[in-house]
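Handout, page 2. Input:
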Amino acid sequence: MQFDDDAQLDPSQVEDVRASGPQPGWGGMPGGCMLPLGGRGGCGGCLLLVLAAAGLFLFGIIPAPFSGQEGGPQGGGRQPGAPATPAASGNLAARCQTGADAEQSEDCRIVGTVNSIQSYWRQAFQERGRTYKPARTVLFSDAASTGCGAADAAVGPFYCPVDRKVYLDLSFFNTLQRDFGAEGGPFAQAYVVAHEYGHHVQDLLGTMTRVGPDSRPGAGSPSVRLELQADCYAGVWAHNAVKTGFYREPFSQTDIDQALSAAAAVGDDSIQRRTQGRVTPDAFTHGTSRQRERWFTVGYANGDPKRCDTFSGGI
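Output:
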């Protein structure tokens, strides 16, 4: 993936709070499966499986509140609706101004990726007579205070529907490659970010209401279908990304292979084999490796969000 050197980046879409470090009272995530507890607009969020002790990382949506009490342990998190905390280590505005900067810096590459994704969805919503509301990405290290409570890096990247932000600890990508066998690479990162913004799109469209507070995991469950649709939306963006003006040329097959490798690495069946030595379909929350690859490919091949109906028929 190559950015257009002259593309103008908008670093205001990304908050960098890494310099602040964990705040007092942050207890991180408990082990076990975080079941949906309900969120804004009745959204139950996804069933994000968090087995930190086993080294299990996924990405998706965090239900709110997910840490057992509002704002996280000991009240460390920000209450829903409270003013956002200013970025602690700003500097992205100075460092990430053009596509040339995105070619030289991982941070700026994330900025450029977020800019392109939101540029596409803004246009897609406009074509359908809707208004797209931007979501910021928050770069954090170790732990973050979110509208959904306190989270640590073990949960992987996630979208919080309460404050409508994507949270990303860049160390996740090293883990994805080292521990889960993904190829890695810049487009693996882009796929993950695009998947999270797929959840933001679902939030804006009201699709998340299909995963209610009583939803259960399992193959074919609403939570699996929601995650697969986000994969499809990531592919839709990839198909249209060059039209946003941030990239010099369409993505190469090598780029797409990086995305497919990342998708396969975080399939429920693949993770279960690595962590427990067997596959338990009744516990699926995100879909199998094959399903995740398939739905990204559907979106990428067609470039049309309407082709991402994972809620009808088989998956």
